[in-house]
């Protein structure tokens, strides 16, 4: 039986091949195991992945028992995307996390409050994303483990303090530090490893503290200097200005779509979407529902933009945001 490995699996496998640390390899292998199609054709491959995970765990335990190791963190992915909030000291990262999610993070008027990754879940309409606050980055120091966990994410929010005369320098220093750690920021792309050995990731530059005196001038400068190459948005985590715009831009930059299920003779459930990568098909949708649907699928009926209600489509039909599907086996 063919394995029929998905694009998500191949992406995780590419991350594993280029991973350097044990932690990065473990994270990639766990993702491979999570997304691999579960059927007889992949039984042997699943076994190989489990053995590699077991072996790496043993190596990690052995190393920790024989040497003092630098601290590291792994953040298990939740929701439909993992977004890292990065920035220079005191740029408002923790305040943004708390304003967008249910997380509790230390907020103080002095720098270096955040010492470890702090996750929280952000609601966007009928789905959730995981946002992660991270320790600050400056010209002198960046936590050695930070690039590793960022490379496993889907999107980066780079904060700059609009009330600071150093706002542009904050952006340049953080971007330079991360790019030297094999993270290459590209507009309008999905996060994935490329043949150049770099992790290509989408980036949104977020001007924070929009409510502060003089912030508007810096906001215009940032938009003019960086707006052609990256997404830019300015917000106030205190009064809420720009937060809804930021949420929409986060969704757009993850390059995903929401598609809905429908049973014959019933109304679709718009509260529980199936989330797919942009460009995926009816067959990919069926795999998300159940492997048997994908194996036995004959065709589907679709309700969506540019289609007449109930139009019959084949397995390779490319889906769009908001489509409703009725599967027929």
Summarize the structure in words:
The radius of gyration is 22 Å and the shape is globular. The two termini are 19 Å apart. The chain is built from 10 helices and 14 strands. 35% of the residues lie in helices and 21% in strands. Helix 7 (215-226) links the parallel strand 8 and strand 9. A 6-stranded mixed sheet has the order 2-3-1-4-8-9, sandwiched between helices. The protein has 3 domains: 7-66, no CATH class; 82-253, Rossmann fold (3-Layer(aba) Sandwich), CATH 3.40.50.300; 256-328, Roll (Ubiquitin-like (UB roll)), CATH 3.10.20. It is an alpha/beta fold. It has helices at residues 7-18, 22-35, 43-66, 93-100, 146-151, 167-179, 215-226, 243-253, 282-289, 291-296; strands at 82-87, 118-124, 127-133, 155-161, 183-185, 192-193, 199-201, 203-208, 231-234, 256-261, 274-277, 299-303, 311-313, 324-328.
Brief rundown of the structure:
By secondary structure, the protein is an alpha/beta fold. The chain is built from ten helices and 14 strands. The chain folds into three domains: 60 residues, no CATH class; 172 residues, Rossmann fold; 73 residues, Ubiquitin-like (UB roll) (Roll).
Question: Would you count the extended β strands for me?
Answer: 14
- In order across it, which strands form the biggest sheet? 2-3-1-4-8-9
Apparent shape:
globular
Indicate the CATH class of the largest domain: Alpha Beta
Quaternary status of these chains?
single chain
- Look at the helices and sheets and give the structural class: alpha/beta
Mean pLDDT: 87
Which residues sit in consecutive blocks of at least 5 with pLDDT less than 50? none
Biggest sheet: strands, sense, closure? 6 strands, mixed
